[in-house]
Write a structure and sequence with these properties.
11 helices, alpha/beta, Rossmann fold, globular, single chain
Length: 257
């Protein structure tokens, strides 16, 4: 799938907040080696490099557009970016492993997570955040619109299902089974978005990308017109903006010894 760092970054404040909330629960004082899997355009990986200036920090992402943007925007001596698939990541060497808003794109990621957790060294931390909003109107309407009329055959198999992520209890089970101390929670952020068609603008940066990629320019515009009307009804614009509630799931594991 083709990512657009500019579009994704339009709601950087709201998108960055869960990362900071996640990181606040990671207690390592001075890791030597930190990895950010599915690092995107690197703004948040940079937060890791600034928090731990003596650590070597690596951001890995499978999107050439994202890795290119990350390399262009930052030049800290302890930070580098690598093009790669997180499914090929070999765990065991890093003291802190972070993956934020990426595993929802990786079917069967629970198996990977179990492997990473099992390989976490003593003193190590593993922290992940995934969106828990696949049954929210934004996603449910996307799936129903993509499955209706002319779109059903054009978009078959393009969208993720509503089980793209597990429930908090699933992640808790994985971390505990690996012998880690676990801290798992969920938060719904009541985000107030500015502007016209605010929710459409948000999903264009992420959930809608695979649909837009699969359609011609004219088809994409037509699809967006129909989906946008449904979103306006589900998320009416109010006096202060458009309220877009967003549930997120967090899991932090720590190997104490
Ligand atoms: C929603 S963005 C999140 C980026 C960043 N972690 C953040 O929080 O801003 C998801 C990122 O996961 C990356 N991604 C998805 N599947 C991946 C995979 N199998 N291997 C590596 N990166 C992947 C995408 O390229 C994209 O940059």
């Amino acid at each position: 799938m083709r990512w657009d760092p500019g579009l994704y970054g339009r709601h950087a404040g709201h998108r960055g907040r869960p990362f900071l909330d996640l990181l606040a629960r990671v207690g390592h004082e001075a890791p030597r080696s930190v990895v950010d899997l599915g690092c995107g355009s690197g703004e948040l990986t940079e937060v890791l490099a600034r928090r731990w200036p003596t650590a070597q920090v690596v951001g890995i992402d499978s999107s050439a557009e994202m890795v290119g943007a990350a390399r262009r925007r930052t030049a800290l001596p302890n930070l580098r970016f690598q093009l790669g698939d997180l499914r090929n990541y070999e765990p065991g060497a890093d003291d802190v492993l972070v993956t934020n808003a990426a595993l929802q794109w990786v079917p069967g990621h629970q198996g990977l997570l179990a492997r990473w957790a099992a390989a976490l060294p003593v003193g190590g931390w593993l922290a992940l955040q995934v969106p828990g909003n696949f049954s929210a109107p934004s996603h449910a309407l996307l799936r129903s619109h993509a499955g209706s009329g002319q779109w059903a055959s054009r978009l078959r198999g393009v969208l993720r299902h509503d089980d793209a992520v597990g429930e908090p209890i699933d992640y808790l089970g994985i971390l505990l089974a690996a012998g880690l101390e676990a801290d798992v929670w969920e938060t719904t952020y009541e985000q107030v978005l500015p502007g016209e068609d605010a929710v459409l603008d948000w999903v264009r940066g992420a959930a809608l990308r695979s649909v837009l990629d699969a359609l011609s320019e004219d088809e994409a515009a037509e699809f967006e017109a129909g989906y946008g009307a449904l979103l306006r009804e589900a998320y009416p614009r109010g006096e202060h903006g458009t309220v877009f509630g967003f549930r997120r799931i967090f899991a932090v594991g720590h190997r104490t010894g």
